[in-house]
Amino acid sequence: MTYSDTDSPAAPxxxxxxxxxxxxxxxxRSHRPTNQAFRDFIGSGWGPRPDALPAxxxxxxxxxxxxxxxxxxxxxxxLVIPAGGLVTRNNDCDYRFRPHSAFAHLAGTGTxxxxxxxxxxxxxxxxxxxxxxxxxxxDDGTDTAAAAPTHEAVLYFRPRASRxxxxxxxxxxxxxxxxxxxxSLEEVEAATGIRCAHIDSLPDALAKDAGPDGxxxxxxxxxxxxxxxxxxxxxxxxGLAAGPEAQQVDDxxxxxxxxxxxxxxxxxxxxxxxxxxxxxxxxDDLIRSLPRATEHRRGERVLExxxxxxxxxxxxxxxxxxxxxxxxxxxxxxWINNDGAVHPGELVLVDAGVEVDSLYTxxxxxxxxxxxxxxxxxxxxxxxxxxxxxxxxxxxxxPGCRFRDVHTAAMEVIAxxxxxxxxxxxxxxxxxxxxxxxxxxxRWMVHGTSHHLGxxxxxxxxxxxxxxxxxxxxPGMVFTxxxxxxxxxxxxxxxxxxxxxxxxIEDDVVVDPDGxxxxxxxxxxxxxxxxxxxxxxxxx
Length: 540
Ligand code: GLY
Ligand code: MN
Ligand code: MN
Fold this sequence. Notes:
The chain is an alpha+beta fold. It is built from 16 helices and 17 strands.
């Protein structure tokens, strides 16, 4: 969307004889009436709108606490967190809208709220930045909210227009006849507990008191190019550094919104559990579709479709593209073509997660024998990966464990097994391989063992290293443990009987308030015996 300093003039009535620009030609499919009699007619005769305001979102108090924790880091600064706009898929078709995760986290809103919205944390008290930045925080990330709030949140969006407006019937992006009932400012205020204002007032609100001796602006610059451009125009007009010169200022905000999500509050953990439970149901459906998959030339698509249907039924959809990789395809780490056949006797590696309506996602991998039984070589590889996963989980539960230690524990098992199987280079032990000049075992598992999980499948991606990889595990952290072994069919260093086998086991883990770790995925079968029983229980 674009912002202008003045209200847009009413669109002139098109001259049918004037040459059409390319952009206008998309309207040639039909002629929408614009005569006043029609406008009066379509704007009348509708029943009343519901007059009860919606109930407060259950996420609202949690989101308010998150905003307070963010505000404390930037006293005196105006913080702009855009929801993002619609993204074009092709021509005039957009992808389904999904707000930026920082916005969803801080506004406490989920699905479908609201393209082009922006959350602004307006500084309270004496205006004026004090020069503090996110990097002034305590290194353990344990900031607590100030006693007095530092900011007031204001949510800017385009509320629904009246039914007598042209927008109502003619605007394919905002019109209620096109996109369904849209909210009023009062309704969103009731649902979120955040003061709401019309998006058209955003430019003036951003400019108010901005300047070197006044308010400094920070924006999550990646969320919406149009809002970032607006912020930069406001900065330039106010004599503030803008564009690349403001990058550090903006990066500090993006970093802080990412680090704020390193620990999840109890409401978020509950949402993640719901996502995992829906994912379990999706895996059940996928297993039920195995017989049909083996008969279809693109059986992997049958599996993908079975999971995807459940993801849409139970949640917003997929948290990321499903990997349904049969046989040797499991050894292509990001196999999302899913256009291969599924043969009895093979394994199928499925990495899939449901994103629930609050936009939190699960991230689960199970490796399943297509005909319900592991062969001996498949079981050997599977057990090695399972042992690595168990070792990583046990390490995560030890006091003082750092995020990176979880990976180390998994690698110790992987390297030991590869040494046992004679796969490390001549004269190299597992201990040698684990050293910085070795790492030969990583040929067969080039990805990491863990990542944070939340609103993004790879959550907290802008967090500083010392706050993530190098940090100790803390209550509220949610992360994956996902070791694997990938033996490509054409890998001559792999014993012949293991070639073409790829296994990953991925669980989602939470650190509880007492520091213990717990698998959110514990109800999803994991061991080879459990997986066999799972398949036979569902398809005999
Ligand atoms: N599904 C993406 C990942 O496991 O990281
Ligand atoms: Mn993962
Ligand atoms: Mn995954």
